[in-house]
Amino acid sequence: MAVKAHRVGMEVSIAVSHAVQLARAEAIAAYPITPQTHIVEHLSSLVANGDLEAEFVNVESEHSAMSACIGMSATGARTYTATSSQGLALMNEILFIASAMRLPVVMTVANRALSGPLSIWNDHGDIMAARDIGWIQIFVENGQEAFDHSIMAFKIAEHYKVLLPTIINLDGFILSHVVEAMEFLDQETVDSFLPAYHPRFSLDPKHPVTMGAFAMPEVYTEVKMSHQMALVNSYERIQKVWDEFGDLTGRRYKPVESYRTKGAKVLLLTMGCLSEVAEEAVDQMRDAGLAVGLLKLRLWRPFPFEALRAAVGGTELLVVIDRALSLGGAAGPVLAEVRSAFYPMASRPQIVGYVIGLGGRDIPPETFKEVVAQAQAEAQQGPTAEYHIFGVRG
Q1: Which CATH homologous superfamily contains domain 5-249?
Q2: Which of 12, 62, 208, 221 has its CA 20 to 30 A from that of 272?
Q3: Alpha-carbon distance values, 204 to 24, 80, 302 (Å)
């Protein structure tokens, strides 16, 4: 079918809310927290004005928001919420329940630093503290990707072979509050891509079922293994939905995306909107005769082990950029995952990790060039540390 689309200039948060509207979400529960407030604030207006036929539940906390989402999703409603930072942390107890009950809730996380000290600015500390909640987790780097993935997330989560809640991560303020030019799809196109949700199981007084039952030790491990395999096996469905969306719109997404990697001896690996800044840095380094490329890690859970190994290929040095600190650990969270991906390989690149941009610290292209220069020097003389917190003043 011919895709009906139009170009708009819009704040990214508002674009996400319109994507949720186009996806025909039926139930929304949320509590405002900077910097995700504009998303649910606008959704509330759409519901109140009759532009979105959905139930919007005002709750007293993020813990209650996710609890309400679980109840609404369990009855078979297409369910959405959004949060950030301390709100995600407050939800933590309930996040594990949503995924264990295989409820396809979709949530936007406008990534923001965790307290303390108190910060409203962007890094990835909030989602890295929730990496093991059993949700599918995807990172976007610009407004168009935020719009696209907010629609695709429902099709991924609700498929009968997946049935797992899904998080779309977008960087707070740096992305959530900027105005960008985007291509919007019309309702007919979205309806053709995303069918109505028909749950396999739902709470219904006329047909009672048990959800979230108590598990004795004799079955708990098997249940968790089933959850693990469902999350790992969702990889195939995620890629299939991305391919279908690419056929529809021409915008194609991969678990690991490459930029100017041909002939590169050094690769940067980034996540989120800083990937676009890293592209500028790579362009400048290439112009200066340095064989540097960029990998953008889009899919965080399930982790794309094979895709990452294929993308790295025979590169000599891999520089992993984290925007969260694993306090007391040996590495940033992404670095630890990447190193584990290459540990079984007989031939693997040198892997060096840098933690940058904590608490919203500005990261210009020059920072990436400095990181690459330092990583190359360390690669020649041997590792000097497990990882580096770049740019510490004092």
Answers
A1: Thiamin diphosphate (ThDP)-binding fold, Pyr/PP domains (3.40.50.970)
A2: 62
A3: 22, 21, 32
